Each structure stands twice: as C-alpha cells, then as structure tokens.
Amino acid sequence: MIKQYKNRLLAFIVIFLAFQGIILGQSDSNNFQLTYSNKSLINTKPDSVAFWGWANKAGVIDRNSNNILNSIYLSTPSINLFWNLNLSAETELVARISKKSSVFFPRVSAKFDIENFDLKIGKFLRSQVRGQEKDLTIGSMLVSENADPYWGYNLESKRYLSVPLLQGYIKYEFSFGDYILPDSRYNENVLFHSKDFYLQLELGNYKVSAGIIHNSYWAGVTPGGLKLPSGLSNYKRIVFNNSGGSDAWQGERINRLGNSVSGYDYAMSYDFGDFWVQISKLFFIEDRPASRHRSPWDGQWNTTFEFSNSDYLDYVVYDHVNTKRQDSKFFEPNGRANYYTHAIYKSGFSNRNYVLGNPLIRLNFLNNGAVESINNVLVAHHLGIKGNISNRINFSQRITYSRNYGNCFDQLVDSGSCNFEPDDDVELKPLSELRKDSFNLSSQLIYFLSDLKRSEISIALNFDFGDFENNFGFVFGFKTSLINQIEN
C-alpha cells in the first residue's frame, strides 16, 4: 500500500511547497510565471509519431498514436526563508489525449539555493555532458531530456567556482544526487545514483574543462524475491564506483557493483566576441575495460557555435555519435557491451518506455518491464540550427543521419554469446549486410503574436525516411503566458 502511493505523496509534498512559494513570495518578488500551451501532433502513420515529434520531449508524447496535449506550467517566486537560504518551485501538469490518454506531472520540484549551491527535490529535467545544453542537440548519451525524469534530489554548484589559492585560473563544478525508480521496472525498489565533477582551466577567452560522470542503478528486489545488495555499506561502494562485496553477484564482484553508465567528458571553448565556439568529446563508459579507453572512438562529439551579435542566427550545433566497438576485441562482433542493457537490471538505461539517454539507441520494452536491444551499434551525424527571420518569427532546423547495425547478436550467424575466444568456431556476418540508413528531419517556425513575445503559435514539419521507416508529421502549437512577471 505504501509503495502504491509513494509517488503521489511526493507530488503532494512538492506541490504544497510550490503553492507556499506563491503565497509567501508574491508580496516580495514579481518573478512569477503561469503558462498555458497546446500542442497537436498529426502523422501520416496514425500509430507512429515521427522521430523529432517525440524525441527529447521528456517522455510526454505517446509515440504510438496522434496526440493532443494541453499543459499548464507554473514557476514560483524565490523567497527568502532565513539567512541566505531561498526557496522556489516549478511544476507542469499535462493532459494528453492519445491512444494512452493520461493526466500527469512530467516535472514538479522545489529548489533551495544558498550562495553558490542549489538543491532540487522532486521530478526535474536535467542533461549531462558538455555541448548538450541547447534544445536542438541530438541528446546526451548519458542522462538526457528524452525520458520522464526520476523522483529524487540533486545538489549542484550554480556555476564554476574558483579553487582556493589559484586566483580563478582553475575552477570546479559538481552535482550529486540520488533517485527513486518507479515499480513498473523489471526489479522493484531500484535506486539510481548520479554525480559528476569538472575542473576548468580559464585563460582569458580560452577555457578547457575535463570531467567525470557516473550514473549507477543499484539495490532493489528481483521478480523472484531476491534482494539485491543495498544498505549504507553498498551505497559507499556505489558512490566510489567499487566492486561488490560478498552479497553481490559474481560479475559485480569482478566488475562494479550495480549497473554503471558513465563517461569522461572533455571540452574546450573560445570567445571571439561576436560568437563563441565549443568543442567537446564524451568517452562513453559502461564497464571496467571502457574506463581504460579500450573503445576510444565510442561516445559523442559536439561542436557548438553561439552568436551574440547576429540578427539571424542564435546558434548552430553539430553532434557525432559512435557506438560501434563497445569494448569488442578484434575477433569479436561490434557492440559486445550491449549499451543501455544489463543482465541484472533488465529494464536497462530507461524510464517508462523511453531511453534515459540518446534517443537514437532503440530498445524493445517488454511487458514484464525488461528491455531488449534493437539497435545500439550505430554511427550518427546531427545538425541543429536556431535563428530568427524577423523580430516576431523564429526558426529551427534539425537534420539527423544515422547508419544502424542492430546489436552484437545480429552479427552472429548462429545464436550464441558475443563474448568468445579467438580459437572458437564462431562465424560473423559482415556489418554491410546489417546496415540500415535513417534520415530524420524537423523544421519549425514560431510566430510571436506581439513584440512582447508572451503568446506564440508554431508549426513543425517532421520527416522520417530510410531503411527504418518512412513517416511525415505535423505539430501545431499555441503557447501563452497567463501571468508573466519577471523581475529585472
């Protein structure tokens, strides 16, 4: 009974804090927003939404039918509780009409901030990896905004902070959080730990950063009632990314406790004045060999150009994703690590039938909560452009091309394991026989109904064509600020 209502209880607590923020904050601050939006998705295939109609939309779209969505977004003022501790909150309520109609909160959170740090509690969107901050990126290979977020907390620095005694030349940034997963997964009562730490070297307009990101599923109970390692001692192992103890499965004692999905993230940027450019590279890590750069080409490249003085361009992003090797040795099939899946945590890197990371990686979601890999061996290129035609008309363009090779098992002529010895008699199919090319395009126009830009109408055209599927969809949108009092 308690498990059945725990998410409703969490929602009630956070929404209560939000309304407390409104009541207490209106007299002291005029930073308050209440926004209504409507969105209609119509596709030539009524049982399938085009890729850029649903990807990176926080899991709010039913991708198996046409959709009509009405949503209310609320952002409360920041109020001072005591000393330098402030409280604010945000929530969004969505009513969706589709094959799976529903009314739900895709996000609801309270934020406490003090000096240089924020603490968020609830459901909130976040994205890991440098270069994935813009709306038109392909989506992070680690935590992205593709799926419904988990309930939890996240403590983070608001910005890069100076390391003491180094005069601002070297700065650091971090986040640290823990989350509760829904019981619709293969294992119940699973927990999710997430953190990152970055160092940045700043020399004038030139900046270089290096970070390590760690995410891990742990604890829980299997369908057969077996309790997986939990408790404080195992939490310490998760935080420090250590091997499991005597209560862990053999593979976790050899490798790492839990299901880790992590990465090394490097970036460098330069501010030219009229525009800013950043290049970043994520080295994807899903097991111990990957942490030693066995698959150096796997991961994600990004280049971002942001224009500060252009009347027509806001930014341009280019992403390159490669997941082919996955720690495979020269005699093994590509994709041996089977990204986004796990032998124990069989729901994989996902939430509510959406991958938690890059949406190009495709999973099959089974009725028992487990997932099967459909396509996680791929090479992709993506371009995103955002700009302005006039003061009242904005445009955006996404162009995505991917070469897809299924998974490692698809390369085996006979069924078996992707992990074998060089003298084993295993015959592999060439990747050229498995290759499927896919193109996903999206063009959007937003027209603001006044110079104040508080109400807008929009239309997006989404195209899918290639070896996966051919689809075409319209997205019609309307958005207006019912209350928009932003403190200057």
Structure, described:
There is one protein chain. The chain is mainly beta. It has one domain (42-56, 129-473): Porin. It contains six helices and 24 strands. It is globular. The chain starts with a helix and ends with a strand. Mean pLDDT is 91; it is low at 25-29.
How much of the residues is beta strand, in percent?
A: over 45%
CATH class: Mainly Beta
Q: Which parts are unreliable, with pLDDT below 50 for 5 consecutive residues or more? A: 25-29
Mean pLDDT: 91
Q: Radius of gyration in whole Å, from Cα?
A: 23 Å
Total number of distinct structural domains: 1
Structural class comes to mainly beta
First CA to last CA: what distance? 47 Å
CATH architecture: Beta Barrel
Reading the helices and strands in chain order gives: HEHEEEEEEEEEEHHEEHEEEEEEEEHEEE
> Count the strands?
24
The dominant shape is globular
What's the short version?
The protein is mostly beta strands and 488 residues long. Helices cover 10% and strands 46% of the residues. The protein has helices at residues 2-25, 51-54, 231-239, 250-254, 288-291, 431-434, and strands at residues 32-43, 67-75, 79-82, 85-97, 102-114, 117-123, 151-157, 161-162, 170-180, 191-203, 206-218, 259-271, 275-285, 299-307, 313-322, 350-351, 354-355, 362-365, 371-375, 378-388, 393-404, 436-448, 455-466, 471-485.
